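Methods — Computational structure assignment.
A single polypeptide chain was analysed. Its primary sequence is given first, followed by the predicted tertiary structure written as structure tokens.
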Amino acid sequence: QEQLVESGGGLVQTGGSQRLSCTASGRSFNGFTLGWFRQAPGKEREFVSGISWRGGKELYVDSVKGRFTISRDNARNTVYLQMDSLKPEDTAVYYCAARTSVIVTTVAATYDLWGRGTQVTVSP
């Protein structure tokens, strides 16, 4: 079974930037979709961004459009989330997830492989 490992979380000031990485072990994710979700204390888990592994089709939640960029390195089986112009409301645990479909969705229940998460904290 494939595994996902996130890295790159930490503390950053408002307006700063941070890049998250998610590395997949096992088979190639060709034919898969990779997504980023986040969850703050007392809040529901929400979709942030997703990308189809083969075609590179991207999708973003409205609140991060123009600030976050998702990308992938097929040779390294790694997906990235570049976060710019960070705001305190971006503070959350960020999770990498994968689903066995080329279609990008925003629904967490449609993703069947998850990383353990990485904390991102944005200070005022």
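Note: The CA atoms of residues 6 and 22 lie 4 Å apart.
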